[in-house]
Amino acid sequence: MSGKREYGDYQTPIDFAERVCRYLKDYYYLKPSAIVEPTCGLGSFLRASLLFNAEEYYGIEINPEYCEVCRKTINDARVKIINSDFFSFSSKALIKNKRQILVIGNPPWVTNTTLSVLDSDNLPKKANFKGLKGIDAITGASNFDICEYMILQLISEYRGTNMVISMLCKTSVARNVFKELKRNCIPFSFCDILEFDATKVFGINASTCVLVIQLSDKSCTSNTCNVYDFECHEIIKSRFGYSNGQFYSNLDFDTENFDGHCCFEWRQGVKHDCSKVMELTMRNGALQNGKKEYIQIEPDIVFPLIKSSMFKAPVIHSFSKFVLVTQKKAREQTKHLEYEVPKTWEYLNNNIDLFERRKSSIYYGAPPFSMFGVGDYSYSRFKVGVSGFYKQPLFSVLYSDDEKPVMTDDTSYFICFDSFDTAYVAMLLLNSKKVQGFLTSIAFLDAKRPYTKKVLQRIDFEKIVACLSIDELIQTEQNLNLTDYVTDSMYDKFKSLLEEGQMRFV
Fold this sequence. Notes:
The chain has 506 residues and is α/β, with parallel strands linked by helices. The protein has helices at 14-27, 44-48, 64-73, 112-117, 146-157, 171-183, 198-202, 275-278, 337-340, 342-350, 352-356, 420-431, 433-442, 453-456, 461-467, 470-479, 488-499; strands at 34-37, 56-61, 79-83, 101-105, 164-170, 188-197, 207-215, 224-229, 232-243, 246-248, 267-268, 279-283, 286-288, 294-295, 302-306, 315-316, 321-324, 382-387, 396-398, 407-408, 412-417.
């Protein structure tokens, strides 16, 4: 198929392309000998980059209609338009004068998963290009922006040169590229982000930037990436990067250092990709599914559910939303449900077509009605959870008045406890002003999901309890409008259990 969505098609307005090129010339003093636009579309950047007066220009474009437009509108013998897709074409071999190469453009703003859903052929060869391991390689962690893939491919192709790359992209993509530069020890002189307003330029709501990188033919690198406002180039807004081997979202933010390794294992909630069947709402004393059907099933495998959007209070213990949990661990057989909960088994089979339509490869070869994100930890009586989406994280104690374990969805994260008191102390510690400040220094608040397992696993509780007093916990309790509950003895017991290692990786 073809279409704008398949190609991630956001054509760059010519006036903005001209402003980007002028910025590169005036503030980076670029004098490229050759310019490449690897996904040139209607050729805005090719036309705008003529101001550099380079010797060679190459535009590569998969859409033949766009190629014809470029050939007609760019009347310059130095410009060569090539009808090819990025994934099967190398531009480096074409260039005669390699003194300084500028690769500029606006690659597709779409993910590989979206293209797969669209049955697109505009995809790179299937590859685990970041070297992910285990379940990460086949689940959400392996989803990536095509734009990111393209930029990293260009960096790999031009590695060891002084090539300058200047690409419009999501800010999250730019950060990932910086991390990959460091992870793969690729020499580069600098990496800058120039943030711009995508609403004004493209009419979309997204955190976007011009990513500018200069590779190097020498052994040099930088641990920081500077962030500028495209409209105000003189001032550095912020810097992110590495300090003492750890990655920080804001190197200039002055916070307590609680960085380390969490003694608890942060877990992700249940994943089923079948909400119309698996997620239920209590209405008028009866359970209703996502198809608005009232259902009668056994309560045995029905559990209270907290979704990301429901983390609105520091203690949550009553529920209107529920979820069916068909397994105690991933890939466990489900046939026993036919005999243990026959009404539920019949209900699931009546909706088997929806389960069979699930596209994720994690379900291939798995037992019927399989889920992921389940294990012994799922059945803990007390949890402290957090939404991955909120910019200001609110950590909540989760438990049910009927003593059933509380489940979270797969966009939430939690740690487990054996008692309410220990969970309550952990919740206060995490919601304290100092810990919230630390989280701000390691999470990117403009990301779709600022708080992930990787971020949360850096919270070192040993460092926190060594720093925070009982008075600070009491103050946090008051800030959260909670009734006075925490005591010295509760906090001392928490510290004691921590020191004895009794809460390690619960």
